[in-house]
Structures are given as C-alpha cells and as structure tokens.
Amino acid sequence: MAVALFWVEAGSQVAPPFKAQDPGARQTPSKSGTSFADLTPAQHQLFIDGHQVFNEAASVQGTMPATRPGLGPRFNLDSCGGCHAHPHHGGTSPKLNPQVELATREGATNELPSFIQADGPVRVARFKFKHDGRRDDGVQALFTISGRSDAPGCFLMQPNFKRAAAWDNLSFRIPTPMFGAGLIEAIDDDAILANSRTDDAKKFSFGIRGRSNGAGRPNVNDNDHTISRFGWKAQVKSLELFVAQAFNVEQGITNDLFPQEIEEAATCRFTTTPESTTHIDASTPLGFASDVAKAAFFIRFLAPPVPVPDDESIVRGRMLFGEVGCTLCHTPTLRTGHATLAFLRDKEVKLYSDLLLHNMGPGLADDIKQGRAQGDEFRTAPLWGLGDRFFLLHDGRTKDLLEAISAHASRGDWRYPPSEANEVVATFNRLTEIDKQHVLNFLRGL
Ligand code: HEC
Ligand code: HEC
To answer: How far is 396 from 175, CA to CA, in rounded Å?
Structure first.
C-alpha cells in the first residue's frame, strides 16, 4: 500500500516536521461482499435469494416497477442495500447519501432534516426524551409516504426534528457493516467472557474497568439472558432478529417477528399485516422461507473482510496498536464455538473487538439506553474492514481516523464517568508521528 513516509534528510536542509495523516478509505474498494467459498449448492442458492431480498426496493403497494409491497407509513429508506451499500451490499454508508433523493420520490412531500446531507453519511435518528420528559430512546423515522402517488389520502407529519435539534434531543446512528457477521454470531458467550478476564493487570493500569469492575461488560438479551452482540450498543441478539427489526424500523415492512405497524394511522394502510411473511404456498423448499430468514442467511454467509498483505509499516503498526493498549478493547481475534455450519465452526474471527460495552465518556455518549447499555456505553466497534469505511463512529461524526481516536478520550462530567480509553489515547498521543502513521496504515489495511 502507499505509505506516506517521507522523513527526508536532504543534506543540511531541515525537512518540515512530519505529521501523521489518515490515508483515507481505500481508493480501490476491497472485494468484501462475496460468500464463504465452501457453500453447498443449496446454501449458495439461499445466498443469492437472500442477496436479492436485501437489495430489493419497497414501494407502498408493490405497484412500482421491481418493488415489493409494504413501504412505510414511516421509513428511513426503501431497501437494506441502499444503506448497507459500501463497498458492496452488506457494508455501510455509501459516499453519497441515498436518503436525499428518497425524501421526495414518487411525489412524497418530506422535508429533508438538516442532519441529512448529500455528501454525509446515511443516518438514523433517535429522540432521547419524549415531550413529557420521560425517556424515549426510540428510532424516529425520517420520512413518511404522504404525497406519494402510491399512497393516496395518507397525510402524516414528520417528527419535529427542528425542535429536537434545538433542544439537543437528537442522537444519530450510521449503518454497521456485516461482512463476517455469521462468525460473530457463532462465538460462544464463554469465549467473550474468558477474553474479558485476560490482561487484567494491564487493563487495570490503563483504567479499563467497566461499570461492574470487569473490563467492559456484555449487553444481555432479556429473553434468554445470553450475550447480545449486534448493533452499536450490542443491543441485538442475533442476525435474524436484526433483519426482522430492520424491515419494520427502517422500511416499515411488518413481518412474522414484528407483525404490527409502528404507525397505524388508518388512512395510511394499504396492505394487510404482516406484509412479509413465510411463503406458505411456495412450491419449492427454498421458496417457503420468509424474506427475513433469507436475508439473515445472506448475511450469515457473507465472508469476513480480507486485510491487505503485510508490509513493514503494517507489521509495526499492528505491534504498536497492541503496545499502546488499543487491543485491550479491540481484541484481535476471538474463536467461534461448535457451530452447526462447518465454515463457521471453530474458526478464528479477526474482528478487533471484545464485543463488550465500555464507558466512553461524555464526549461520545449519545444518551440512549438499550438493554443494559447506558447512555455512555458502546460496543467496541469491530475494526475489520475499516479500510473501506468513509464515515466513523456511531454517529458518523468524522471521516478521519485521528479524530476518531481522539474522540475516544473525554473527562467525566456530572452524568458520566471519564472514558475508559483515556489512558490508551494518551499513550497513543505520546507516539512519534512516524509511529502514529504506522498505526494508521495498519488500520486502513484492515
Ligand atoms: C436507513 C438505513 C438502513 C436501512 C434501510 C437498513 N439498515 Fe441495517 N443498520 C442501519 C443502522 C443505522 C445500523 C446500526 C443500528 C444501531 O446499532 O443502532 C444498522 C445495523 C444493521 C445490522 C447489525 C450489524 C452489526 O454487526 O452490528 C444488521 C444485521 C442490519 N443492519 C441489517 C439490515 C437489513 C437486513 C436491512 C433491510 C431489511 C437493513 N439493515 C436496513 C441502517 C439501515
Ligand atoms: C475502552 C475501550 C477502547 C479502547 C481502549 C479503544 N477503543 Fe476504539 N472503540 C471503542 C468503542 C466503544 C468504539 C465505538 C465508539 C462509538 O462509535 O461511539 C470504538 C471505535 C473505534 C474506531 C471507529 C470504528 C468505526 O467503525 O467507526 C476506531 C478507528 C478505533 N476505535 C480505533 C482505536 C484505536 C486506534 C485505539 C487505540 C489508540 C482504540 N480504538 C482504543 C472502544 C475502545
């Protein structure tokens, strides 16, 4: 890879001081987005069908060309693949935000909220509190189907984003990539817990403690009390659950797992519910599977990101990444358990995450509670595939790796304790500029 290292000593001339710089997202995107190599023919067909579901756009009644029915009444976009677009389907926000065009497609009368910009990240918005001061925490869909030619007679107001912005009542999330997510799903809880107990002394000296005095703590699924692991706060237990929820929350498509419309206004209902369900009358076994199940298998079968080959800078960067303490949260590898699918069984997962929640300080806190995650707690973001990501951190506030690293540090305030990452960031900041550059090169090679 191109290494920005030009510490030239030209005779007696003094070279300008070298400053480490984020090399930026890869110019040539990685090949992520393919399936595991060793799928059976039936699994491969499922991958293809699931991909199609993932990419299929929705319209209100399914009457627009090449669309499925069920969009809205409230929604954030009309397809999974539109938000999870880069570098390929299953990834994350593309460079140009498709939400801008969708706001007014088919005659829709949506006003574009100020935090949605053409060259900004795809965003989903939440309100922290309701009018009456009680906690909200929920997603507020950006758009409605009002005005669309396929939704005659439906009139809905968008949430009042202007007022929410003025009252500092908004928080944002950008899409997370899901290459290799099947491997993450197949990691035993025991492996996550055992990893949380390693390097105790070092974690303690770096101040990485977590709320319960372990180093970080898992989020937990309330139905079966096992560790949940997907989403920015590890708030969702499994891929199928995430898919089903995304269908309803992002697109307004009700399904077997989430059968009720989030918005039930009578004049805006053009379909029966659930809109997407098991295909009971299918003539083939694969046809029987619900679109939710198919999309979940598509994701499960997505191969993990492949890092660029090692060079000297990457090798040194990786070493420093460990030395300064980044690996105390960004665990380089975890192993899967005794998974049913052979290609997920007993495999190394090079995700660079411990899948635990950490107190990240008031600077990153989004004031949203999910499961056991408090307003300042986030899942250590898996860093595999980082080379392809344009937008960084849960709200996509920056494109710059150095800014993402410094955002890890913040002092405590009256609501939240100091970030667990403070000491690690301070150690990173003491590296020479050249060593910082090695770390950045390593990260953009992932
Ligand atoms: C409007 C944009 C948008 C659309 C449309 C969308 N997503 Fe997402 N997706 C997100 C955001 C934002 C997150 C992070 C959610 C969070 O943690 O709060 C996410 C996270 C996920 C994750 C979790 C990955 C991980 O490892 O944490 C999965 C799985 C997922 N989406 C699947 C889907 C599927 C399937 C669809 C279509 C049914 C879909 N998404 C549609 C924005 C979107
Ligand atoms: C205390 C645990 C912890 C430590 C230590 C830590 N991180 Fe993180 N890291 C996180 C969490 C949690 C997030 C997600 C935060 C958010 O989005 O608000 C994150 C996010 C990131 C991201 C953004 C990823 C994305 O998908 O947007 C990068 C890059 C990153 N970390 C790099 C580093 C580097 C480099 C170091 C060492 C200097 C480091 N981290 C140390 C917990 C940690």
So the answer is: 9
